[in-house]
């Protein structure tokens, strides 16, 4: 009897506690509810059915994801990079050949015997030349100078003797997100990737990663070098480089915790890079102001083209309706670059390195929770808020809302490592104000090699999504200027 009464009392207390928690969750803001959900969610290893997570996604969300992946194209602009996984360009057989040359080359020894000279054919009726030494010297002096011999790079192949002397044997190779994952005989994993940057920048990338590892920052790739010290393998007119495999999964913008972890990793990366010695004097710092002016000029030219163009389709009409506001935002952002505090930030000689390609696929969450940085091919000297602006903008675009709750978590996490200055907050506002998204969409629509007279459904869908977020974006920028920078926001 007492046990039954005690059990009934415990059930009533548990039920009342659940009601209080549910009532409190209704009064809490959405961002706090998201944090509570993540903190109370058990680890994946404790879940009974881990395969049920993909099934919970709606069919409409999957369709939107497919359209986004089809529409996104690789862009060379580091201020709005692409985060769509790309398949490797080469075949598996080609990658296997490169991996054998890189990881387990054959040593070339000297021949035991000299090759026999070729004997003239018996059927040959040609007579030997009767030129004397004096005739040969006269002929050489009288002949016109010839051009130096040039090596055909397309036929050139790497010398196996100049490569690494590892005895590693690659037993398996498979494509993963645009690179090749190579498994050695001892189980070690390596990533093999084709370089799309010049050799000088590839050497600069390798030296940056080496110095960061020496400083204790291991959240960047450890690039493998050959015995000659080259961080690449030359194959014809293409370059490949390899680095130790970094385990983990791409970051999810839906997780506020992972966004905060990514901000902390970027802050540590920026802080440690300031202590690095001068690397690659031929690598110019990233011209942020010039890049913004060039993008603004592109939008101005597009507005003139659409004004004189006849037979505008739905995409052209929607884009033309947004250009006036976009040009005003671009002018406002460029005007903010002339503020003395912002100019000091731009011209600061102590600026560290920036990743300049902050995407979900380039932020890898390690099983221990640390966020790692990969694909540093665009790394360069630049103001650190450039990376932070990429993280904020792409997080809010992916979540479908421009809100202070999404922005405050990475900013607070970043400031705990190395606080931002007022001039950097102003520059961050200018970068978030500039219409990078609209410039990206018009570039993929009109500047791509596959552009046609009519837009694709995927391109039209992305433009409509950007237009739907524009009202939230402007509200966020007004709140940011009023609460953070105290900068007067002009109506646009």
Polypeptide structure, described:
This protein has 492 residues and is α+β, with helices and mostly antiparallel strands. Strands 1-2-3-5-4 form a five-stranded antiparallel beta sheet, covered by helices on one side. It has a three-stranded antiparallel beta sheet with strand order 6-8-9, with helices on one face. Strands 7-10 form a two-stranded antiparallel ribbon. The chain is built from 16 helices and ten strands. It is 49% helix and 9% strand. Among the domains are: 92-105 and 156-246, Phosphorylase Kinase, domain 1 (2-Layer Sandwich), CATH 3.30.200; 250-485, Aminoglycoside phosphotransferase (APH), C-terminal lobe (Aminoglycoside 3'-phosphotransferase, Chain: A, domain 2). The protein is globular. α4 (59-71) crosses α16, α12 packs across α14 and α15 (436-446) packs antiparallel against α16. The termini are far apart.
**CATH second-level architecture of the domain at 250-485:** Alpha-Beta Complex
Q: Going across the major beta sheet, what is the strand order?
A: 1-2-3-5-4
Helix and strand succession? HHHHHHEEEHEEEHHHHEEEEHHHHH
Alpha-beta content class: alpha+beta
**What is the class of the domain at 250-485 in the CATH system?**
Alpha Beta
- List segments where confidence is low: pLDDT < 50 over at least 5 consecutive residues: 43-77, 124-167
What is the residue-averaged pLDDT?
76
Distance between the termini: 74 Å
Overall form: globular
Oligomer: single chain
Q: Could you give me the name of the CATH homologous superfamily of the domain at 250-485?
A: Aminoglycoside phosphotransferase (APH), C-terminal lobe
């Amino acid at each position: 009897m007492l046990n039954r009464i005690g059990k009934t009392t415990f059930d009533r207390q548990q039920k009342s506690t659940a009601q209080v928690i549910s009532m409190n969750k209704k009064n809490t803001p959405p961002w706090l509810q998201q944090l509570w959900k993540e903190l109370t969610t058990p680890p994946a290893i404790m879940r009974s059915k881990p395969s049920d997570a993909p099934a919970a996604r709606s069919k409409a969300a999957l369709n939107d994801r497919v359209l986004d992946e089809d529409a996104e194209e690789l862009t060379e602009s580091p201020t709005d990079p692409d985060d769509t996984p790309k398949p490797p360009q080469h075949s598996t057989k080609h990658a296997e050949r490169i991996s054998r040359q890189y990881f387990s080359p054959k040593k070339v020894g000297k021949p035991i015997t000299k090759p026999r000279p070729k004997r003239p054919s018996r059927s040959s009726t040609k007579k030997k030349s009767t030129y004397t030494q004096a005739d040969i010297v006269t002929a050489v002096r009288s002949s016109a100078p010839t051009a130096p011999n040039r090596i055909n790079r397309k036929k050139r192949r790497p010398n196996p003797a100049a490569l690494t002397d590892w005895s590693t044997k690659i037993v398996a190779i498979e494509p993963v997100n645009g690179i090749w994952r190579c498994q050695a005989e001892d189980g070690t994993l390596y990533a093999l990737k084709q370089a799309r940057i010049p050799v000088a920048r590839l050497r600069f990338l390798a030296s940056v990663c080496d110095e960061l590892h020496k400083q204790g920052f291991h959240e960047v790739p450890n690039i493998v070098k050959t015995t000659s010290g080259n961080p690449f393998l030359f194959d014809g007119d293409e370059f490949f480089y390899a680095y130790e495999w970094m385990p983990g999964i791409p970051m999810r913008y839906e997780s506020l915790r992972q966004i905060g972890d990514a901000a902390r990793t970027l802050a540590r990366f920026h802080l440690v890079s300031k202590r690095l010695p001068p690397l690659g004097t031929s690598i110019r710092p990233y011209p942020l102001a010039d890049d913004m002016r060039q993008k603004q000029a592109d939008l101005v030219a597009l507005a003139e083209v659409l004004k004189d163009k006849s037979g505008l389709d739905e995409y052209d009409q929607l884009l033309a309706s947004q250009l006036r506001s976009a040009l005003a935002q671009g002018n406002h952002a460029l005007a903010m670059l002339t503020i003395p505090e912002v100019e000091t930030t731009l011209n600061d000689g102590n600026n560290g390195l920036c990743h300049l390609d902050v995407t979900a696929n380039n932020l890898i969450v390690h099983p221990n929770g640390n966020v790692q940085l990969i694909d540093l091919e665009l790394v360069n000297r630049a103001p650190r808020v450039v990376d932070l602006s990429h993280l904020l903008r792409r997080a809010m675009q992916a979540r479908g809302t421009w809100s202070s709750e999404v922005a405050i978590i990475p900013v607070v996490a970043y400031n705990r490592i190395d606080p931002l200055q007022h001039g950097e907050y102003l520059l961050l506002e200018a970068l978030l104000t500039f219409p990078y998204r609209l410039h990206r969409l018009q570039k993929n629509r009109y500047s791509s090699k596959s552009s046609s007279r009519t837009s694709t459904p995927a391109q039209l869908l992305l433009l409509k999504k950007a237009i739907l977020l524009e009202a939230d974006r402007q509200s966020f920028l007004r709140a940011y200027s009023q609460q953070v920078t105290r900068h007067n926001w002009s109506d646009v």
